[in-house]
Automatic annotation (TrEMBL):
<dbReference type="InterPro" id="IPR001173">
    <property type="entry name" value="Glyco_trans_2-like"/>
</dbReference>
<protein>
    <submittedName>
        <fullName>PgaC</fullName>
        <ecNumber>2.4.-.-</ecNumber>
    </submittedName>
</protein>
<keyword id="KW-0808">Transferase</keyword>
<keyword id="KW-0328">Glycosyltransferase</keyword>
<dbReference type="GO" id="GO:0016757">
    <property type="term" value="F:glycosyltransferase activity"/>
</dbReference>
<dbReference type="InterPro" id="IPR029044">
    <property type="entry name" value="Nucleotide-diphossugar_trans"/>
</dbReference>
<dbReference type="Pfam" id="PF00535">
    <property type="entry name" value="Glycos_transf_2"/>
</dbReference>
<feature type="domain" description="Glycosyltransferase 2-like">
    <location>
        <begin position="7"/>
        <end position="134"/>
    </location>
</feature>
<comment type="similarity">
    <text>Belongs to the glycosyltransferase 2 family.</text>
</comment>
Length: 308
């Protein structure tokens, strides 16, 4: 087998049917290709997913973890990857066709200033899933960030910025990587022709997780990248946004714990350049209470909260 150009890495945890669907679709596009390798990482599943992946071990690399480490479990797959580029998927996401894989490779081959390619995320009915991480218009362009269920990145660059942050577990890991990629002088490119279906399976996405991890991890990001006194405003805004979600989910204790950990953790501050502050304007607006309230009353559809 030739050295792979692209390593496809996906992570799963107790979602057997989703993993089965995703892997069968990926294999459909890669079965006859020797320039692509597939790596499946299991986060200590107990529902038969691990055994199912073992049945594929003669065709793909399977990594079995002894405990659920969250999104950082993907790092084990990244460390084993040999491709020039890494294509990251969830256990419920897959590329629309094989052309998507070729477009990712070609984009990174021909644009030496692009470090990461953000894919268009859509439903199984081909409806785009709008996220504040991505541009709102489907034309190739610079992107602030990316969505974790469908992106490709230069392996050497990804390794240099430290893969996904180990402490985050879930949510906002994309933003930390985006900040690091930008700080390293690379661009993130939105390629709507690279289409990824995300089925958004609800299993495992419980209410407390969506209160605790986005709140805590965003406070960490604010403390790391925002300058005083703006950092104080953004932290208070995020606490208010978290309170709203905690009341919706009935998870107030999780919010208290998230804020406590967010404020007490030892964070080494990095001062972004003025250009980076402009580049990440959408992130700051997304975590501004004034901005959220403005759009909530003006046009609820513009207050995009997907993949928070």
């Amino acid at each position: 087998m030739m050295s792979p150009r692209l390593s496809i890495v996906f992570l799963n945890f107790n979602r057997l049917e989703e993993t089965r669907h995703t892997l069968e679709r990926i294999w459909q596009f890669c079965e006859n290709r020797d320039d692509i390798e597939i790596i499946g990482v299991d986060n200590a599943s107990s529902d038969g997913t691990r055994e199912y992946l073992r049945s594929w071990s003669d065709r793909i690399q399977v990594i079995e973890l002894e405990e659920n480490t969250g999104i950082v479990g993907l790092n084990k797959g990244f460390e084993q990857a040999c491709g020039d580029y890494i294509f990251v998927l969830d256990d419920d996401s897959y590329p629309v066709d094989s052309a998507c894989l070729d477009r990712l490779i070609d984009c990174l081959d021909t644009h030496k200033d692009i470090g990461l390619v953000a894919c268009r995320i859509e439903t199984p009915l081909e409806v785009p899933v709008r996220s504040w991480h991505l541009p709102l218009t489907d034309i190739p362009q610079e992107s602030m960030a990316f969505v974790g269920c469908g992106f490709a990145v230069r392996r050497v660059l990804f390794k240099r910025v430290g893969w996904f942050p180990e402490s985050f577990f879930l949510y906002q890991n994309e933003m930390e990587v985006a900040f690091q990629v930008a700080g390293s002088g690379w661009h993130i490119h939105y390629a709507p022709g690279c289409r990824v279906v995300h089925r958004e399976a609800p299993k495992g996405r419980t209410g407390w997780r969506q209160v605790f991890f986005p709140t805590r991890n965003t406070i960490w990001l604010i403390r790391k990248y925002a300058s005083p006194p703006f950092s104080v405003y953004f932290i208070l805004s995020r606490m208010a946004i978290g309170l709203f979600r905690a009341l919706q989910a009935g998870e107030f204790a999780c919010l208290v714990k998230a804020v406590n950990q967010g404020l007490k953790a030892n964070i080494v501050r990095e001062k972004p350049s003025s250009d980076m502050d402009k580049r990440f304007k959408t992130f700051w607006l997304q975590n501004s209470l004034i901005h959220q309230l403005f759009y909530l009353f003006k046009d609820p559809q513009k207050s995009v909260k997907k993949y928070d």
